[in-house]
Fold:
Amino acid sequence: MSLVPATRVRIYLRDSSTYEGCASYVVIARAFRDAGIRDVSIHHGVMGFDRSSGLLSARPLRFHPDLPVVVEAIGSKEQIDSALPRVREVLSRGLITLAEVNLYAPGEEVAGDE
Structure:
């Protein structure tokens, strides 16, 4: 089984955050795609924290006008590093986390798969 080293980045921000008239999460996702990263996802209403350590959460069974948003991207360290300056420019308030991860090569079985 061969593992591919990669970097995972998660950006926690608020749904209401905008940058130059566009939703910040859209601009951030575009920055990762422009860096050549294909694995980008946007999650609305996921619990997380912002830069001020305030808990962001969707209130259960109620509509909340400012849902938390998480943008997640996985790519090479170089790809992530090339996108981060643009992400920091867009992110006025939020949190960025980075983690080194190993990805399984496509089509390979993972231990425990039967």
Observations:
- The two ends are 15 Å apart (CA to CA).
- The longest helix spans residues 77-90.
